[in-house]
């Protein structure tokens, strides 16, 4: 922006807020969006132990700057917490240069549901429907499908409305993804927002017929969205499976392929 170039994506301020999981949680809480119970940032080890009792076990230790499952640890009991906190901090520092961590309650039996959103520079925001990415290993998605089979039409409409509200509230421009956890009672919680195009965007393209990359280019050129929400129609079903480089003879640990 300072160089006078057009960045094909959201404003840097939006990336900064939504790319930090703690800042994103705080922003969502401020506008009344449900998030899974968790802690504030910057707590020392003693404060984390006290806060963990309030959050409740089992819980997740999560890196504030995290992504791709790095800096995350599942903790089942209080005895496991100190080791998990230390390990998550080390991993986060190595991966992101930021060892800040926080705690978040695990939503038991949750499904991972996400909504593709598009926003233009004129304040128009729509979503292109949902995807389910619940089949994961080590917090890495393996299978993505659209539409999500777990949603009925009422829930789909409500989650889509909230995804658009989130994008609009933060001034989102270009393509992005709002991710939710859906529990087995039908309650959903904001998880995070990916301020970019994700690899699973193509299953959404298949069922909506919308070329999301083309829309990003149009938006970056200053044009208004061509579609209104009522124009978005999902037809059929699509699935994507990721090919991962892992060693099946060594606990499926990452491999050079």
Question: Mind explaining what this structure looks like?
Answer:
With 257 residues, this protein is an alpha+beta fold. It contains 7 helices and 11 strands. It has a 6-stranded antiparallel sheet. The longest helix is centred in the middle third of the chain and has 17 residues, at 153-169. The chain is globular and about 55 Å long. The N and C termini lie far apart (38 Å). The model has no long low-confidence stretch (mean pLDDT 92).
Briefly summarize what is shown:
The protein has helices at residues 12-19, 21-30, 45-55, 81-96, 153-169, 201-208, 212-220; strands spanning 59-63, 73-75, 101-105, 111-119, 125-137, 140-146, 174-182, 188-194, 238-241, 246-247, 253-254. By secondary structure, the chain is α+β, with helices and mostly antiparallel strands. The protein starts with 11 loop residues before the first helix and ends with a strand.
Characteristic terms for this protein:
257 residues, alpha+beta, 6-stranded antiparallel beta sheet, 3-stranded antiparallel beta sheet, 7 helices, 31% helix, 26% strand
Helix content bin: 25-40%
Taken in chain order, the helices and strands follow as HHHEEHEEEEHEEHHEEE
Topology, number of strands? 11
For the termini, the CA-CA separation is 38 Å
Question: How is the biggest beta sheet arranged?
Answer: 6 strands, antiparallel
Which word captures the global form?
globular
Low-confidence stretches: none
Chain-averaged pLDDT: 92
In terms of DSSP E residues, the strand content is 25-35%
Q: Work out the radius of gyration.
A: 19 Å
Note the total helix count. 7
Adjacency order of strands in the biggest sheet: 8-7-4-5-6-9
| SSE-based structural type | alpha+beta
């Amino acid at each position: 922006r300072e160089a006078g170039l057009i960045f094909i994506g959201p404003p840097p301020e939006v990336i900064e807020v939504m790319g930090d999981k703690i800042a994103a949680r705080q922003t969502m809480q401020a506008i009344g969006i449900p998030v899974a119970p968790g802690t504030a940032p910057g707590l020392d080890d003693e404060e984390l132990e006290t806060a963990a009792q309030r959050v409740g076990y089992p819980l997740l230790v999560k890196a504030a700057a995290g992504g791709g499952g790095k800096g995350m640890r599942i903790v089942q009991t209080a005895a496991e917490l100190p080791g998990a906190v230390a390990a998550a901090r080390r991993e986060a520092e190595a991966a992101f240069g930021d060892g800040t961590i926080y705690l978040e309650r695990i939503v038991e039996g949750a499904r991972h549901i996400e909504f593709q959103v598009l926003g233009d520079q004129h304040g128009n925001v729509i979503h292109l429907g949902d995807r389910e990415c619940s089949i994961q290993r080590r917090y890495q998605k393996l299978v993505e499908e659209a539409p999500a089979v777990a949603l009925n039409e009422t829930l789909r409409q409500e989650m889509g409305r909230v995804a658009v509200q989130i994008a609009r509230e933060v001034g989102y421009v270009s393509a992005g993804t709002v991710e939710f956890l859906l529990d087995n009672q039908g309650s959903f919680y904001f998880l995070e927002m990916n301020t970019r195009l994700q690899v699973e965007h193509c299953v959404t393209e298949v069922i909506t017929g919308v070329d999301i990359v083309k829309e990003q280019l149009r938006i970056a050129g200053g044009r208004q969205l061509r579609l209104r929400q009522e124009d978005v129609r999902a037809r059929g079903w699509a699935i994507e499976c990721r090919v991962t480089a892992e060693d099946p003879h060594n606990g499926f640990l990452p491999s050079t392929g």
